What we know:
- The protein is an alpha+beta fold.
- It has one domain (14-110).
- 19% of the residues lie in helices and 27% in strands.
- It has two helices and four strands.
- Strands 2-1-3-4 form a four-stranded antiparallel sheet, covered by helices on one side.
Amino acid sequence: MPQQIEPPSDGSDATDDADRIVIAVVRTGGIAGLRRRWRVEPDPEQTPEWAALVERCPWDEHPDPSAETGADRYVWSIHAVIHDTQHEQVLPDALLHGAWRELVDAVRAADTD
């Protein structure tokens, strides 16, 4: 079941804008086992470029369970709400490449808090 993404940071109702995009990335694991979070809710003028990043990702694919996992490795949880549709994917670090890496890197760069 997809995890619900927090309401808009401006306090408005999520139903106010069907074009709202929210992307959240959570990285867990590593040597210290710490959890890091990044989130972006782009302005309307940035919506097309963020929508393209989200839509390039293969949300319906299931990661290979034999992908490299284990102690001290990162696991990435990626959640996106785009045009009233929620997407969710959990990937081991070994599978974070291509469109996934582009999306995660963009979210991390945009979240300056």
